[in-house]
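Minutes, project check-in
Item: structure for the 297-residue chain
Input as provided by the requester:
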Amino acid sequence: MPIQNHSALTILAGVLLIAGDRLAAQSTAPKPTDQPAESPYGDLIGADKKGTSKPTPRTADGRPDFNGFWKGTRNTKPVGNIAKDLPGLKLPLTPAGEAAWKHNTTATVDPEAVCIIGGIPRHNASGLPFMVMQTPKLVSFLYFYTYYRLIPVDGRKHSEDPDPSFFGEEIGHWEGDTLVIDSIGFKDTQVWADENGSPHGDTLHVVERWTRPDADHLHVETLIEDPKFYTKPFTYSRTWVAGEPGQLLAEYSCSENNVDREHLGFGPGPIRPDGTRGYLDPAPLPPPPTPVKPVKK
């Protein structure tokens, strides 16, 4: 049986207390050797840590310890695009996938802009940080937008007919030092698969393989399969770096003071040939106004 909300929150509260103690006990991580990434998220994006890391920490049961605060690096290019690892940044879209992508980018507002959960695989491609809270039977991911997902690793199997959800029905298990998360039962096209408006449907199947190669890095290989919208399965991979010891996510309210909802445009905005979002040649900003000198009397 899937974990119900009231039980999940009770477990999550306990996990947070345990993880808080662990985070406080961690030693100071080595400082990165290169400069922080240029990002609209400031210090939530970090520079990769090269040649300075300690061995992978482990939990009491011998598993790799994924607990902590994780942030992306400027090495992930283009960020927010699940086609990052594909030749020419081209997704293997079916005709239905092409139509869905065109609809997403020309006739719909970004779902996250109106407080709809991004889900998976979108959060694996996001530039925003997250936290992991790990116990022997449950791994929790807490996201910057105050979303969370709970992955049981207690040996259960998928339901015969799972209720559709934004993150899908997620079942985890360990293969050696790799946490494997298998997800089915997703909601249909109300959500985007990434920040570029890539589609996914209720036939989506995602398999994530999470590893912690050393103390400073967390890595995922994401297999994405959706026969409705894609002609073949494909993969998306990336690595995050550890935040400072004790670093926590801040409170975030998606819809507070949302006075500009009626002005939101369709789609993600223009997408450059390199897969990033933005204008190729943005118009220059107007010059600042000339200060008016006071008239002497």
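Outcome recorded: The first helix runs from residue 5 to 25.
No further action items on this chain.
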